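Researcher: I'd like a structural prediction for the single chain below. Treat it as a standalone chain; there are no partners to consider.
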Amino acid sequence: MLPRKTARVLLLDGQDRLLLIRMHDPNVGDASGKVLSRAYWVTIGGEMEPGEDIATAARRELTEETGLADARIGPPVWTTEHVLCVHGKNRLLQETFVLARTGTTVLNRGGWTPLEREVIQDMKWWTLGELRETTELIFPTSLVQHLPALIAGDIPASPLAITP
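Model: Treating it as a single chain, here is the predicted structure.
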């Protein structure tokens, strides 16, 4: 199965709010090919390009998807691995999440690709309380469980494997 190495960004603002994007891609489903019937929220990020390391890919994705060039990219903090069906082919997603901080919250969609314009519906800064109370679908599903430690400054010495 073809791996898909992905850099994901846990972008926190000065108030410890997390930026998530709301999307729905009819060309992406679970390992069986079943596509979710509703939109979901995910962190900034995407597939790494050849020759990129995690930090470079995270910076590129962050700039493309938000227009924010001033964010401070931190260390990798989480990893996940799971299978998704992308355009009819199963891919092994190998996601690495980096922590990043910004003082700027004004977002710019000017760097979006045509595909991103089709599948991304919204971007929103979430407080931890809002994340805990929402009935919206958020990936990774264990985000709310692990985010408080990061906000408190408890950065793991090596990335923690979490539930996708």
